[in-house]
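Weekly puzzle thread! Below is a chain. First person to post its structure in token form gets bragging rights.
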Amino acid sequence: MTAVLLALALLAPPTFDLDATRRALGHPDGRDGALAALDRLPAPLRPAAQAGGIGPLLATVALDPRAALAHRVRALRLVPYYNTPAAPLAPLLAPLLAPTEAPEGIALAREAAKALAALGEASHGVLRPAGQHADPEVRATVARTGALADGTCALLEDPWPLVRRAAARG
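Winning reply:
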């Protein structure tokens, strides 16, 4: 009997409760579970989440200074999977690339640059100013994307080898 129930559970199509996920993302206690569910969401179900506005909610979590750093980083890592042309997320993430000396701000800028790079050419306008960012990892990520076009040559003279290699590849 147990084997039959297990087989039925494995054959049942996965479900996704968009409203519950939205509510959980907005509440600090439910955020961890919602982010984990979005991370495990099968690719065929992601368009429903995209259409349901999960992308902007992820950007809201990433921008929330009261949210746990782990939640903010995880939200940024999920952004490329839930971006839509109808509601592009790149402009929403621009504030995370602002210069800062706070370790948390630098970590968020690095993750935001990676997320924006994964969004492709649509994010180049947002990434372009980050080519002058104080953090070499942010500059290297921007250089790899080719967002700087002519400015990539300037990064070939950067004092950090990491940035010079990225500029040469970009």
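Puzzle host: Confirmed. Bonus trivia for everyone else. The CA atoms of residues 32 and 71 lie 7 Å apart.
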